[in-house]
Amino acid sequence: MSSPSRSPLAGIRDVLVGTTVEGEFDPPIAAIGYGLTLAKAANAHLTVQSASWRLTGDDAWLGEFDYVGEALVDRRLDALARSIAERAAGDAAQVGVVCTTEAPGLTYPDVVTRLATQARLHDLTVLDAGPRRFDLDRETIERALFESGRPVIAVPPGRDAFAARRIIVAWDGSAQAARAANDALPFLRAAEAIEVVSVCDDAEIHEAVPGAEFAPHLARHGVNVVVNDLPKGDGIAETLRSQAGLFRADLVVMGAYRHSPKREFFLGGVTRSLLRNCPVPLFLSH
C-alpha cells in the first residue's frame, strides 16, 4: 500500500509572525492573518510575537511626556498587544493550527533584536511592510534577514490571506537571488504558474547567470518555469511591480539588499522601493 504524497509545503514546519503595537489606533495587521493561513496550508506550528513598543526608557524625544503619562500609555499598548496575541491564538485554535504566542513590552532596539533572534528558530518569518510605521517595519525586516539566516515574507496592507498559485521569481543572477529561489522551493513546487523575470542592464548581467540558464536547475527540483527578460524602463522596482500585476502574481520571490542597506538608503534600492510599495507579498532572502 503506497503512502499518501507529502504536501509541497511539508518542508515548512514552523512559522513566526512578528508585529509591534505602536499606537492605540493602528490599522489592521495583515501579517497575522497571512501567517495563520500559511501555517494552516503547511500544517506548521505558528508562533506570534505581538510586542508593544514601550515609551519608557532613555528616548530623548519623549521629553514632553511625564513618567505617569508614559506608564499609562505603556499599559494601554501592553493590553492591546496581549489582546492581539490572544485573538491570534483563538483564530488558530478554530482552524486547527498549533499556536504559541507572546506579548512582550519592549523598547525600540529590543523590538527588532528579539524578533531577529526568534527568527533563527523558525523556517520563515512573516512581517508587515508598507508606509505605516515604515521605519520600524523596515528595520525589523532588515535585521531579521541579516541576523537570522532565514527568509522573510513581507506582507503589504490588505494581503491577510496566504496564496502562492502564481509566483514571480525576480532574477538578477546574484547570490542573493539564488538563495531566495532555493529557499522558496516549497512554494515554487506548489505553484501553478511561475515566471522567472530578469530586469537588468547589460553591464549588470554580464557576470551573472542568465535566467534561461537558471531555469534547468529549478526544473530538476520539479519546478517548471517560463523566463521573461524585461527592459529596465522606469526602473527595476517599477518594472517588477508592473509585471506582478500583469502576471496576476500572488507572491514575488527575490534576493534582498544586493547592496548594503546603507548604500540603499543614500542611493535608493530595489528592495526598499518594493517594501515601501508592492502590490503583493515579497519572499525575501539574503
Automatic annotation (TrEMBL):
Alphabetical list of Pfam families matching this protein: Usp
Domain of life of the native organism: Bacteria
Family classification: Belongs to the universal stress protein A family.
PANTHER family per record: STRESS RESPONSE PROTEIN NHAX (PTHR46268), UNIVERSAL STRESS PROTEIN HP_0031 (PTHR46268:SF15)
UspA domain ranges (all copies): 165-283
CDD domains reported in the protein's UniProt record: USP-like
InterPro entries: Universal_stress_UspA, UspA
Organism: Methylobacterium fujisawaense
Name by which UniProt lists this protein: Nucleotide-binding universal stress UspA family protein
